[in-house]
Design a protein that fits this description.
heterodimer; A: 375 residues; alpha/beta; Oxidized Rhodanese, domain 1; Metallo-beta-lactamase, Chain A; 2 domains; seven-stranded mixed beta sheet; six-stranded mixed beta sheet; B: alpha+beta; Translation Initiation Factor IF3
Chain lengths: 375, 75
């Protein structure tokens, strides 16, 4: 019948609302096995587009008639072709605009809380890749933490809130995605804060972010307290915002903990990771709401699409915080680690300013899930 | 290598490199070799998987100056 277009934003809404959707993914089988659009009520059928060049008759019985159907491929072209073939067979289907590339890049802003004196804290959920960025807004000023490469989203959002960006911070040197921090700081002529121990090889100027630093946003002092918490990287720093929120970077997630092997040797940093999680975080209030830099699985999303949980709850429920035996903890985070994120060495070099790939190359480098955690 | 036919698929986006390759290979006899030039970054994984599923043999592939070249023997 007809072919419709569905945007990544529309798919994101379906994930958050737990809507039903049938996804016909026409990428290669290994690409599908590696990374796909996850949703609680999504059903899937994967067949590479090149198996369908002679027609779609063979798969018609696999396509349900009582569900919305979305055809997905890497960049869009093949999904349009397959969607048109299905339409000729009498189905009404959609294709994903921009394919998995646009799914990887979509950011969904979700408000996670109010700060004192009218301030607000927003989480930007990169739902396709599992990256989380943050914006602290107070009295016409904004700070951005762990920004992704899609800098326009942050610049436009701050403008829509009438806020001037005054500080840009990264909790650590990222290995799974290209940071937008430096670019935003350059465009807005503001300070870019990085933990110096992660930044020894960077080729640009930055402000050194160290434990005990206080960055104030707005006149009413929504303070960001930096807390040194190494383990995922040697420089990893957490932030306590407004004494209410703990931005844990890649140290602590909702249902997992940070892996220590992406920037060095796991054996070297496992002790730091344990110290950060089992000693430094234990000294903080259990009432703090943990806001991590990633999620791994869609179950970690709350009803409103946010990723947040009280520290006290995580001390009870997060398996990685409940391994009493140090040797067992050491085994968990150094053995049987999942594969590393796609192109993680090149991504680290990009974030250090050592290489500057073209935008298309940057997109390719970021394909796939973030893989920064160990469960 | 005794190449029977050369297909220029440079500048074409997915799915066209495979669509053209399939058409070109249909015009060959089993055992003959098709050389394909493409610039689409997905071409390598797609052509490899396509050749395998179609019973053809990917003899060799190279990348030079952002041009991918493939030599496929019809099965």
């Amino acid at each position: 019948m007809t072919v419709n277009v569905m945007t990544a934003g529309e798919v994101a809404k379906k994930v958050i609302n737990k809507d039903a959707l049938f996804i016909l993914d026409v990428r290669n089988e290994d690409a599908f096995a590696d990374w796909k659009i996850e949703g609680d009520n999504f059903d899937y059928f994967n067949i590479p587009y090149f198996e369908l060049l002679d027609g779609v008759e063979g798969i018609m019985e696999k396509i349900p008639s009582d569900k919305e159907v979305l055809v997905v491929c890497a960049k869009e072209g093949s999904s349009v072709m397959v969607a048109e073939m299905l339409a000729e067979e009498g189905l009404t289907v959609s294709y994903l605009k921009g394919g998995m590339k646009s799914w990887s890049e979509h950011l969904e802003p979700v408000k996670v809380g109010d700060l004192k004196d009218g301030g607000e804290l927003y989480q930007f959920v990169r739902i396709g890749k599992g990256c989380l960025s943050y914006m602290v807004i107070s009295n016409g000023e904004a700070a951005i933490i762990d920004a992704t490469r899609m800098t326009d989203v942050f610049l436009n959002f701050a403008e829509s809130k009438g806020a001037k960006i005054t500080n840009v911070l990264d909790t650590h040197l990222h290995a799974d995605h290209i940071s937008g921090g430096r670019s935003i700081a350059e465009k807005t002529n503001t300070t870019y804060w990085l933990p110096p121990k992660d930044a020894e090889e960077v080729t640009f100027d930055y402000a050194t972010l160290e434990g005990g630093n206080v960055v104030t946003i707005g006149n009413t002092a929504i303070d960001i307290h930096a807390l040194y918490s190494p383990g995922h990287t040697i420089g990893s720093t957490s932030f306590v915002v407004d004494e209410k929120f703990l931005l844990s970077g890649d140290i602590l997630f909702i249902d997992s903990i940070g892996r220590p092997d992406l920037a060095g040797k796991a054996e070297d940093w496992v002790g730091d990771l344990r110290e950060s999680l089992y000693t430094r975080y234990r000294e903080l209030s259990g009432e703090l709401v943990v806001l991590p830099a990633h999620f791994m699985i869609i179950d970690e999303l709350n009803e409103d699409g946010s990723v947040a949980e009280k520290l006290g709850t995580l001390f009870v429920k997060n398996h990685g915080l409940n391994i009493d035996d140090e040797a067992e903890f050491r085994r968990l985070v150094t053995e049987n680690l999942p594969p590393q994120p796609n192109a993680y060495q090149e991504i680290r070099e990009t974030n250090m300013g050592k290489i500057t790939p073209e935008e298309e190359k940057q997109r390719e480098m970021e394909i796939g899930p973030n893989r920064c955690a160990v469960r | 290598m005794d190449v029977t036919k050369v297909l220029d698929a440079k500048g074409l986006a997915c799915p066209m490199p495979i669509v053209r390759t399939k058409k070109a290979i249909n015009e060959l006899e089993p055992g003959q070799i098709l050389e394909v030039h493409a610039t689409d970054k997905g071409a390598k994984s797609d052509l490899t998987a396509w050749a395998k599923s179609g019973g053809h043999e990917l003899l060799k592939d190279t990348e030079e100056n952002e041009v991918f070249k493939f030599w496929i023997k019809k099965g």
